[in-house]
Specification:
This protein is α/β, with parallel strands linked by helices and 538 residues long. It contains 17 helices and 23 strands. The protein has helices at 29-34, 36-42, 77-89, 108-115, 176-191, 225-228, 235-248, 264-268, 300-317, 332-336, 343-354, 385-396, 401-411, 414-417, 448-453, 458-471, 474-477, and strands at residues 10-13, 46-49, 53-54, 66-70, 93-98, 127-129, 140-141, 149-151, 158-161, 196-199, 222-223, 251-256, 276-279, 287-288, 291-295, 362-364, 480-482, 489-494, 497-502, 508-509, 515-519, 527-528, 533-537. A 7-stranded parallel β-sheet has the order 13-12-10-5-2-1-16, covered by helices on one side. The protein has a 5-stranded antiparallel β-sheet with strand order 17-18-19-23-21, with helices on one face. Strands 6-9-8 form a 3-stranded antiparallel β-sheet, with no helix packed on it. β17 and β18 (489-494) form a beta hairpin. It binds alpha-D-glucopyranose and calcium ion. Alpha-D-glucopyranose binds next to loops.
Length: 538
Amino acid sequence: MQQWWKYAIGYQIYPMSFCDKNNDGIGDIKGIISKLDYLEDLGVNLIWICPMYDSPMDDNGYDIRDYEAIYAPFGTMEDMQELIDKANAKGIKIMMDLVVNHTSDEHIWFQKALKDKHSPYRDYYWFKEGDGKGNPPCNWRSVFGGPVWEKVPGEDNMYYFHSFSKRQPDLNWNCPSMRRELGEMIARWMKRGIAGFRVDAINFINKDAFVSHEVDGPDGLVSCFAYTRNVPGIEKYYVYLKEIFDANKCVTICEATGMPYEELDVYVGEHGTFSMVFDFNYTNIDVENEDYFRRTNWRVESYRDLLYDSQLQLQKVGWSAPFLENHDQPRCINKLIRNEKYHAVGAKTLALMLLSLKGTPFIYQGQEIGMVNFKRTGIEQFDDLNAKSQYEQSLANGFSEEESIYFLNMRSRDNSRTPMCWDKSQYGGFSNHEPWILMNEKYPSINVEDQIKDETSVLNFYKKVIHLRKSDPAFVESDFEAYPLHKDIISYKRGKYTIYINLSDKDIKLDIEGNIVLNSYSDYDGTLKPYQGLITEQ
Ligand code: GLC
Ligand code: CA
């Protein structure tokens, strides 16, 4: 059977920053509904929306208080149903975000677990005794900084575990009643007519033995990644998840940071748990260990080889979902087009690359107009909890305030969370009200309205590439073939097409094969210009 999602063009929406229909400064569901025509016109037909559930918003919705209620400023369950129905009527499928590694500390399960040490809900989470001398069970650092253990108020030697913020306690996947409740919740969401889920941080659900390891930072802790992420034995939990997904016919994408390719089979193999996977192995090229202050001076060649490897490994085993941006990443132009002079043309070249890769491509809101990072001058201008933590860690590691702000400007998650720029009016047509997060000051020059009118815009180029991709199933079905020609060029073949991406600011002489079907510049004279991209056909 042909799987429709392999032919889909994906688009990610960050609801808080997409469109604010009732003008309170916060994006909402009615806002998304009002932009369905825009999305249809762009040519996308599968939308992943970041968490919309009721939440205290410690981590902008990745801390869920109630899986079956909508965050009030976003709207109501009726609005959500309207969105699903209207999108479906246009042939646009919706994927929700499924956050089941952890809940909010305000979730009723956790509240009950906290209040009563004999509550059955204690088993839904990870409660452990400390060493009795005032120390938690082990010395791991959580993803957002600080220890993974938080003391249970009112008890002497008891702690609960969190991989992310202390307001995101991890769920215990060994607990059958917890799994059953999540399964029922998923079934009810599927009945509302969604296609499935993007599955958040799911490779964190198995934990290593809670023992201390050698300290790796000035805070006296050690990064938890090696002990909470992709921990051997995780397969048994994926079997539970697969039962739930299969029973409900969910289409799923797994967020798998740090995933080793040897384990791909478990994720997306013939009997794997997920339909597709977001592979990050080529994404975090600019930093080490996901720390903003450990910047790398990467070479195009290494990026190319990582991308080749990702494509080749994935097509052997299953299906991928290539992406260049998301709500946790900086804008791809700033990351990959390292000479500002070429940002506009580079945005087109990256479109050409993303949409000619194998797998279901995902475009992140604003990427289609070539949105860029913003520059902030002080820590008080940042919103994200991880920006604050990374700033502290950067200072503690000996960097100056100025350097630390520079790192945030390059990497902070606030970069991609600024409001979508629809036009050049105040607040970029996102709202009439001051937005919840600072606007990117670029909206007068980078916005949807202007780009619709300009035939040569990034937006119209995206439409062209999407059109080309949809016009020939070869872009979906044919194998990815690495075709290395030059250290600064990412080149590959997809069936009768050859793709050439110059990811440097140098002119590179090159004999190309076939006829040009798409060009991010207006011509080609035998030399690939800085950041020029081509698709040729034979
Ligand atoms: C994922 C989300 C990120 C969130 C984290 C914890 O990585 O994409 O935004 O902070 O999980 O839920
Ligand atoms: Ca609103």
